[in-house]
Specification:
single chain, Spore Coat Polysaccharide Biosynthesis Protein SpsA, Chain A, two-stranded antiparallel sheet, 6 helices, about 25% strand
Length: about 240
């Protein structure tokens, strides 16, 4: 039976956050940012295992971060880029995961993910699909800047989507694609699958699945999460 596993690359330093600790370890609503995603996956019966890929020299990691977890384990094999961490993580997971199992790669700094989004992604991808990712259709007009930060071009937003995570692909196919195209430095798994000749499916994500990148993003994500909780409590 095909299984679903989660890989969370968490080896980045998050330099744009301008914080002492990497952003995935910063507190959000009473627990580290990373723990929010872990808790979502831990509570889902659809998910068999969760693998966290950290840097070998990570001085901020603590086993206490996984207190109470039953299907999450840490792999200290992170690389110097997101793609390298995913590739090394897939290699380290090989003894636990079949080549035809699905792997959901999720950003460590997307704490707003909930079970409904994950279930929507899983339900949208059939056995005949190459895989897919959560994403949002772009709502804003896009401008391309010139070297002096003046508008050089307005880019039509029709058919443009903003990629989110999880991004879900077969373990063997994703590992092969990364092995072939890692030197090109893909920015996400969907891109490396595109380079390998596949067309990943876009599945509607959610605004609260925002990636925390800058300091003010924490307040934005917290507000979105609290608003969603208030809506659920009111039902």
């Amino acid at each position: 039976m095909t299984q679903y596993h989660v890989l969370i690359p968490s080896a980045g330093s998050g330099s744009r956050m301008q914080s002492a600790a990497p952003k995935q370890y910063l507190p959000l609503n009473g627990k580290p940012i990373l723990r929010h995603a872990i808790d979502t996956f831990e509570a889902m019966p659809e998910i068999s295992q969760v693998f966290i890929v950290i840097a070998p020299e990570d001085a901020y990691w603590s086993e206490n971060l996984l207190q109470g977890c039953h299907k999450t384990q840490v792999l200290s094999c992170g690389g110097d880029s997101r793609a390298a961490s995913v590739y090394k993580g897939l290699q380290a997971m090989a003894s636990y995961v079949n080549q035809d199992d699905w792997v959901l790669v999720h950003d460590a700094a997307r704490p707003g993910l909930d079970a409904a989004m994950v279930q929507r992604l899983i339900a949208a991808i059939s056995s005949t699909d190459v895989g897919g990712l959560l994403a949002l259709p772009l709502a804003d007009t896009l401008k391309r800047a010139d070297t002096t930060q003046q508008v050089a071009e307005t880019i039509p937003r029709e058919s443009l989507w903003q990629a989110q995570t999880p991004q879900m692909f077969k373990a063997g196919m994703l590992q092969q694609a990364l092995a072939a195209h890692l030197p090109r430095q893909p920015t996400d798994e969907a891109q490396v699958m595109e380079w390998a000749g596949y067309a990943p499916k876009l599945v509607l994500g959610d605004l609260k699945n925002l990636k925390i990148t800058y300091p003010h993003d924490i307040a934005v994500v917290l507000a979105l999460m609290q608003a969603t909780q208030s809506e659920q409590d009111a039902k």
